[in-house]
Amino acid sequence: MLAQLLVSSLTAGAVYALIALGFVLLHNGTGVVHFGYGDQVTFGAYLVLIAQNFVGVPFSAAIMMALLASMALGAAIYAVFMVPLRNASLLARLIATLAIGTALREWLRAFMGPNAWPFPFLLSPAPVEVGGLMLVPANLAIIGVVLVILAGLYLFFEKTLQGKAILAACENRTGASLIGVRVSRVFLVIWVVASLLATVAGILVAPLLTLSPDMGLIAIKGFTAAVLGGFSSLPGAVVGGLLLGVLEALTGAYISTALKDMISYAILIAVILVRPQGLFGGLALKKV
Hints:
A two-stranded antiparallel sheet has the order 1-2. It has eleven helices and two strands. It is globular. Helices cover 70% and strands 2% of the residues. α2 packs across α8 and α9 (219-229) packs across α10. The model has no long low-confidence stretch (mean pLDDT 88). It has helices spanning 2-30, 37-55, 59-82, 90-112, 137-159, 161-171, 173-178, 183-205, 219-229, 234-254, 262-274, and strands spanning 128-130, 133-135. The chain crosses the membrane at residues 6-25, 61-83, 90-112, 132-157, 186-209, 262-285. Keywords: Amino-acid transport, Cell membrane, Membrane, Transmembrane, Transmembrane helix, Transport. One of its GO terms (molecular function) is transmembrane transporter activity. Belongs to the binding-protein-dependent transport system permease family. LivHM subfamily.
């Protein structure tokens, strides 16, 4: 029973980890918490359906088109909103991200309708028994895709100059600019990568949830995972997502299924009160 729960929880935890990574990347690089990020997750999934139903391409090609479109969307958000607001107050930038998310959500509601749309699984959703555990190929595909993405991000940040430049700019943008890093280009790459992660997360989670304009509420789970792991830590975002998935599964199985979704809010409040820096974050001292 416990082993089955842990295996099942990995699917949700992997998606939470992807969303948390997007939050952490944007926050570390630009100092902004993107409150419209959940709507980008939803928008990415809808892009696949738009490509299928209105362009008439097959599912695999629709996914590729959605990924490319999401990268363009991330670049557009940075160029149209973030660059003009780079010297604005933090509140103004937060309101801008909220407005972006609201615009995406309401456009989907107007163009695609408020009703739910079916979304195909990457693999079969029928369970298969392996070693006494019931494994779902569609869920294994989600975990596999997330593992590949995490490995790719690790290699990108650790082995490439562009990745190291992003880490340097996230750590100290002034110092990075002094050693020749083009911080503006780094910020552009961050928005593109974060938008790409949002679309991948949307494609993976849409078959498991109801794909509607309000599906972006799942970003609350990703935000909680980012806070739990430490909002300044990329590895912490991954651990936070997986841990949140496990805690949700255990709560639903051993306490009450009614409390399964509430656990995210309870964890968020508890972390803020007890350890605001998260599991892997560190307290920052700021001179005022």
